[in-house]
Amino acid sequence: MNHRAVLVIDLQNEYLPTGKLPLTGIAATVANAVTVIDHARVNDIPVLHVRHESTSSEAPIFKPGTDAVAIQSAVMPASGEPVIVKNFVNAFRDTDLKQQLESRGIKEVVIIGAMSHMCVDAGVRAAADMGYTVTVLHDACATLDLEFNGVTVPAAQVHAAMMAAFAFGYATVTSTQAYLAP
C-alpha cells in the first residue's frame, strides 16, 4: 500500500488570466502539476483534488455554478479521484479530507496548487499539525502580488516567503524535478 498522496489544491479557472484572480506563473505551475499528477497515476499514488467554492451566489470570487470554480482542464480529476469541495481557506475545515486520507492509509502528502500564501499555506500547516509528513513542490504552486499598507509585495517574494516558512518548520520544500528524480 502506498502511504503517500498528492493533494492538488484549487487549480481552478478563477486563477487563469481570464479569471478574477490571475496568478503569476500559473501556466508553468500547471505544467509542473500535470507532470506530478501523471507520475502519481502511473505509480499508483492517490491523487486528491480540492476545489474552492463560495457559499453565496453573490460572492465576488469562486461563485457557485460558474466556470470560475471549475478545475482547470489540464489537471482534471481522473475517474475515481476524489474532489473535496471546500468553502474555507483550509481544505481540512468542514470537509472529509482527513477521512479520505485516513481511509487510504496516507501518512505523507505532497501538496501542489494555489495560492501559495492562502489555501496552500493553510493546507500545509493543517496537514503538518495533524501529523502528516508534508512535501511542497514550490514550482507547482503559484500566487500573486499582494498589497499591505501601501506596499506592493511582488508574487515572487510572497511565494519565496511562504516556501521559506514551510521549510523552516512545516514541510520539505523541493522542486518538481527533484521530487520526480529516481
Automatic annotation (TrEMBL):
Domain of life per record: Bacteria
InterPro entries linked: Isochorismatase-like_dom (IPR000868), Isochorismatase-like_hydrls (IPR050272), Isochorismatase-like_sf (IPR036380)
Residue ranges of every copy of the Isochorismatase-like domain listed in the record: 5-175
GO molecular function annotation: hydrolase activity
Keywords assigned by UniProt, alphabetized: Hydrolase
Entry annotated with the keyword Cytoplasm: no
CDD domains assigned: nicotinamidase_related
One Pfam entry name: Isochorismatase
SUPFAM superfamilies hit by this protein: Isochorismatase-like hydrolases (SSF52499)
UniProt protein name: Isochorismatase
Organism: Stenotrophomonas humi
